[in-house]
Write a structure and sequence with these properties.
Largest sheet: 6 strands, antiparallel
Enzyme class: transferase
Strand content: 15-25%
CATH superfamily of the largest domain: Transferase(Phosphotransferase) domain 1
Order of helices and strands: EEEEHEEHHEEHHHHHHHEEEEEEEE
Number of strands: 16
Protein name: non-specific serine/threonine protein kinase
Keywords: ATP-binding, Kinase, Membrane, Nucleotide-binding, Serine/threonine-protein kinase, Transferase, Transmembrane, Transmembrane helix
CATH topology of the largest domain: Transferase(Phosphotransferase), domain 1
EC number: 2.7.11.1
CATH class of the largest domain: Mainly Alpha
Radius of gyration: 25 Å
InterPro entries: Kinase-like_dom_sf, NEK_Ser/Thr_kinase, Prot_kinase_dom, Protein_kinase_ATP_BS, Ser/Thr_kinase_AS
Number of helices: 10
Amino acid sequence: MSQSERFVLATRYRLVSELGQGANGTVWRGHDELLDRPVAIKELRLPHELSEDDRVVFYRRTLREARAPAQLRTHNIVEVYDVVIEQGRPWIVMEMIEAPNLEQLIVRSGPLPPDRVAHIGRSLLDALGTAHKAGIVHRDLKPSNVLLDGDRVVLTDFGLAFSSGSASLTKTGHFMGSPAYVAPEVAAGEKATPRSDLWSLGATLYAALEGRPPFERENVMATLSALATESTPPPQNAGALAPIITGLLEKNPTRRLSHARAADRLERVLAGPRSGRGRRSPTPRYRMMVVIALIGATVASCGIGATALIVGMMREKPGASPSASTSGTVDPPVRGTPPPGVTASTLAVRARTSGCRIFVAMPGDVITVLTDATLTIGEVRKYDQSLLNAVIYDASACDVWVNGRQQPLGNPGQRKSYNLNRTGGG
């Protein structure tokens, strides 16, 4: 048995083998002997030049910032199990994920195709959205902190780097952070914000597409100089992702692409191959086929013939129903708080996340499509028609009220259908 295998943290976490080292410490493969499960353990390394007071601050910040992501229960953020102090330094016990990181994949396979990068970007936006809503800024988003476990994209190292929220040159001349992925305002000494994380996301996606980050140079100072003085080089392999990447890499944070708009544009890119060979607006015939697939059961139960359905598709209303109302906000709505006018509506839908996609149609002699869209966070659509058919594509992403009554929240990815009338539920 090696010396490391004999070392046990907090009487339960046994070190098994070293997985890798970085600027902030060492990551170990470990085993939780109490729960009999594998774990990843990060040993945080304190800079030697720290004073005793700085070491106390480091410990406090580590404990505070490790507790925060431990509360983030989401598929796209690594789960933090525990934080212990052993041998005079902190150790972070986390979920063990046997998967390569994005940096390793880029080195091994070269630039990734845009469709895969779009999937990675959308997953990372979900992770950042969860963290930002909890008041947590990552501050060090980069390819080596993104694990790719099949289709699962996992963001790691939330708030665990030694940083007070602004990456800057230390007294000894070492850059605290990742200069190739840091936002310009943070490199200039300003406090890191959610908008800073969006820049880092843009630089990470740029690297995935081009094989290198946009401002990386031969050393830290040259990288920082390029970041401060040079224009962002346009990506060459981005395809439909190009405006998203350039929007995220806007140097002025007030003009940078917002989380909601980035999510919406990535959704459009991801939906492109399924939308009539990449056309944004499908033809009436294609739209008819989609609607037949979605509400075929409803059509059969109502006795509507194929001819009437085709006529209905040709009469589809552009945009939202006149009876629908919208309101937008980047903050998630509080569940249980109904928007105004819900009690008078047959159906009301409010987007909890950017994945709230809905299809709403009014049956009759012809079928009239009222809405087929992805709502922005906080956006509300209300319908007062007496008969409605609706499909919610992700029941966890939308709050739904039927005849004034809020419906139970579904599971992620769960599709729900409603056949509604003024007096009955769905």
